[in-house]
Amino acid sequence: MNVTTARVKNVLTRASGYLRPVCSHSLQPYRGCGFGRALCGVGCYVRHNTWLTRGEEWGSFLEVRENAAEAYAGAVDRERAWARRSRGAFTIFLSSSTDPFPPHEARFGVTRRVLEAMLVSPPDELIVQTHSPAVAGALDLLVPLRTRAGARVRVHLSIESDRDRLEGLPPPAATVDARLAAAAACRAAGLPTVVTVSPLLPIADPERFFARIGEVADAVVLDHYVGGDGSRNGARTERTGLPAAIAAVEVAALDLAYRDRMVEVARRHLPRVGVSAEGFAGRFL
Ligand code: SF4
């Protein structure tokens, strides 16, 4: 992977499209993703964003936004005022086109410095969206952001299935067990914790999977790539190897009706079950 550093003028992006009902802003500490060549990178909708990839193959590059914390501090008062005026609340989604806790975070600490800046000048709400168990290593910042600075902090752990592998596709960013353990740690620390099954992949044992999620999380959100990848009828994902890999395991899982069946199973195990963008927004919480 080609890792470079960059300084950005603006790190708070006003939300539009799929994210509009979810948050007022997204924040990307990195451009590109440290997990771009993992399982989730295969169908990742960001790989089609030519403005972000700039001609490079998804997963082959990572731009470290080394001044992200300073850029946040410089813009936060203006963006908070805009968000409260036009969106009702200043809600940050960390992150929508990268993962805030790639392996490189241990070396560069960009996300940690952003969280430190948020402790000084907090958003109204922070949604941390990650595939990485390393989020548990940031609890020393996330917990005081909630308890001391007063932000509504919520952790979303992405776990798309109970399967660690799909035939022919690369391994996941982290095992299912490791991500469930990280969710448990976040919840035990007092942070509202949501497992996001997104994009939903074929589940080997749905009853057991959602029961396990119910043991470690406050809620679950299910999202199918059809209607969930920001394109009409999942057209973006159809251009990737993901649908064929799903069909090889369970062809019925290609259909939105599969999501609805899984929602029914999830409701037997968790009191709070969200679906698609409304779920990510936490409207069901
Ligand atoms: S962690 Fe998120 S942004 Fe990164 S490749 Fe996976 S789905 Fe895409």
What does this protein structure show overall?
By secondary structure, this protein is an alpha/beta fold. It has a single domain (2-278), classed as TIM Barrel (Alpha-Beta Barrel), CATH 3.20.20. Helices cover 36% and strands 17% of the residues. It has helices at 39-42, 50-53, 68-86, 105-108, 110-120, 139-147, 176-188, 206-216, 235-238, 242-249, 256-267, 276-280, and strands at 2-6, 12-14, 25-27, 30-32, 61-65, 91-94, 125-130, 152-158, 193-197, 219-222, 273-275. The strands form 2 sheets. The protein has an 8-stranded mixed beta sheet with strand order 2-3-6-7-8-9-10-11. A 3-stranded mixed beta sheet has the order 1-5-4, with no helix packed on it. Helix 3 (68-86) crosses helix 5 and helix 5 runs parallel beside helix 6. The protein is globular. The termini are far apart. The mean pLDDT is 95.
Instruction: Count the beta strands.
Output: 11
Give the averaged pLDDT, no decimals. 95
Query: What's the oligomerization state?
Result: single chain
Structural class: alpha/beta
Ligand kinds: iron/sulfur cluster
Number of domains: 1
Q: Uncertain regions: pLDDT < 50 for 5+ in a row? A: none
- In the CATH hierarchy, what is the class? Alpha Beta
Q: Total helix count?
A: 12
Residues in helices, as a percent range: 25-40%
